[in-house]
DNA sequence: CTCCAAAGGTATGTCTGCGAGCCATTGGCT
DNA sequence: AGCCAATGGCTCGCAGACATACCTTTGGAG
């Protein structure tokens, strides 16, 4: 029997129980900036349907987010669950053992997404969306940078037209962000990052897959080496 | 709220119940050739631990595979569950709606894997493994080609050293194979495929990431256009 | 020849998660 | 002022999944 491939195929079928995975997803949507501070999450009934989980489980997950001061709920029509304006610091460090794993997958997915996006003929709405996200990221403060940055990268994945690729990028970014939250974010990094973003988006809008791939690769390799430097000490 | 990214983040948290996902995994390990005909699956207790699922659930899944003539079980020490020499035809066609989705993700993952593999310094065992898989694929019959082909592609993902990437490739190949099983496999395709495999592996062993990526891209684009041709009628 | 380790086969009690229904609250609409 | 639609809050019974324990079969080791 092929020995090593088994590790991948016989890995656990579920990352956790339904409750934990639901918390994870809602957390992702907030941390990645898909639902911004002040905005409302979908209703509990809606979330239950979309996430394929019972409403009871959704409520338990939301309760957990409330207790950790991520969201607040209001009853009544036009009520709902709203993301707090001020979000808690991220959870304490997890294990860094899979640093190589995270960075390898991220590089593959995101350079591939950039290349694919550049190879498609984008509609005006998509082009506007990309420029808007770029603008948001470049004008953001240090505090909200990680969220705006993620939104931009997610937007790139979205315009590939592949839901599975978008989901994979979201997952991968979440894992990477958990690590990035433990290294300092400095103004010079941010400026450098913005410049790279502009090159990536420009290449995509120009329809130059090779350039988009390379620009994205350089962008990612920057933060990757930062990470390796800080965490491998 | 960012409208489109929600589709990815608020997708169902689980693909099915524990039983269904377990069947899926075991099926994958057989269809992708990770456990070849005549070989033995890990013991039920072992599988239960690795898959993070109860032994009862594992047994139900194995029972399902028995009923579909994929495996047979024998009791006693040195017994176990063995993959049948003659495997059933694949399940009836599913929906082809996500053809673009499957092909996009596959291209990103596998070209990325090839490039990453070529960028690493491989040990002698890894190099031998790759050559062995290549040899197996090139000398295989039509009947066993899909399995040997998958093993080769999985082996490439494995030598990236990223378990997450390997798992993603396995998942993606499984989805692609479901589609490929519904188009004819002809001798000329096979010969062409083998030639492309050789170029991919040669580039990886030579440590030329760009060439590996390009060779893999051409290889995948070949079957992709075949698929699009047959299924979009 | 006997023993026994390792594998599949079976049974039971517990707990998680689900479905479905109902209640309580709220703010716009009439 | 009253209505009511949409939202969060709550409860209860059932089905799925789990952990654990024990039984049965088998073939090599001693």
Number of helices of chain A: 10
Query: What is the H/E order of chain A?
Result: HHHHEEHHHHHH
The chain pair with the largest interface is: A-B, 61 and 61 residues
Mean pLDDT of chain A: 90
Q: Give the strand line-up of the largest sheet of chain A.
A: 1-2
State the CATH architecture of the largest domain in chain A. Answer: Up-down Bundle
Percent of residues of chain A in helical segments? 55-70%
Query: Per CATH, what is the topology of the largest domain in chain A?
Result: Four Helix Bundle (Hemerythrin (Met), subunit A)
Distance between the termini of chain A: 38 Å
Oligomer: homodimer
Strand content of chain A: under 5%
Please give the CATH class of the largest domain in chain A.
Mainly Alpha
- What number of structural domains do the residues of chain A give? 2
Q: Give the full name of the CATH homologous superfamily of the largest domain in chain A.
A: GntR ligand-binding domain-like
Strand segment count of chain A: 2
Structural class call of chain A reads mainly alpha
The value of Rg of chain A in angstroms is 19 Å
Question: For the report, how would you describe the main beta sheet of chain A?
Answer: 2 strands, antiparallel
GO molecular function (chains A, B): DNA binding; DNA-binding transcription factor activity
InterPro entries (chains A, B): GntR_C, TF_FadR/GntR_C, Tscrpt_reg_HTH_GntR, WH-like_DNA-bd_sf, WH_DNA-bd_sf
Pfam families (chains A, B): FCD, GntR
Domain HTH gntR-type (chains A, B): 16-86
């Amino acid at each position: 029997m092929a020995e090593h491939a088994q590790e991948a195929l016989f890995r656990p079928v579920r990352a956790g129980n339904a409750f934990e995975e639901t918390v994870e997803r809602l957390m992702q949507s907030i941390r990645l900036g898909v639902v911004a501070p002040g905005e409302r999450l979908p209703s509990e009934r809606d979330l239950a349907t979309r996430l394929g989980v019972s409403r009871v489980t959704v409520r338990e997950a939301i309760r957990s987010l409330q207790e950790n001061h991520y969201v607040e709920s209001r009853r009544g029509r036009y009520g709902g669950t709203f993301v707090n304006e001020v979000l808690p610091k991220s959870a304490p460090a997890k294990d860094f053992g899979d640093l190589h794993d995270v960075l390898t997958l991220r590089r593959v997915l995101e350079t591939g997404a950039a290349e694919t996006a550049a190879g498609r003929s984008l509609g005006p709405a998509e082009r506007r969306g990309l420029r808007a996200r770029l603008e948001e990221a470049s004008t953001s403060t240090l505090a909200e940078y990680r969220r705006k940055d993620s939104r931009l990268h997610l937007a790139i994945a979205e315009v590939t037209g592949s839901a599975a690729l978008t989901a994979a990028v979201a997952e991968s970014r979440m894992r990477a962000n958990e690590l990035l939250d433990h290294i300092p974010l400095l103004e010079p990094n941010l400026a450098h990052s913005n410049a790279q973003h502009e090159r990536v988006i420009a290449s995509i809008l120009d329809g130059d897959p090779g350039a988009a791939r390379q620009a994205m690769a350089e962008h990612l390799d920057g933060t990757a080496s930062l990470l390796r430097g800080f965490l491998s000490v």
